[in-house]
Specification:
By secondary structure, this protein is mainly α. The chain has 1 helix and no strands.
């Protein structure tokens, strides 16, 4: 995955009242969508029910 950094020069009021709330809303919508897709793939391709899969809070780190 390629990440990009964006620098915005704007008044603090614009960032706090417009940009940041919009970012949080879009981030929440994207997370919900990805969770829905993930559960559908697990349900349809891996297990009949998502609850049958073992859920791991955090994967083990490679050393």
């Amino acid at each position: 995955m390629h990440r990009q950094t964006v620098i915005v020069h704007a008044p603090v009021s614009f960032i706090n009242q417009v940009l940041w709330p919009e970012f949080e809303e879009l981030s929440e919508a994207l997370s919900a969508h990805l969770l829905e897709i993930t559960n559908r793939i697990i349900r349809e391709e891996v297990y009949a029910k998502p609850g049958e899969a073992d859920e791991i809070a955090e994967p083990a780190r490679l050393r």
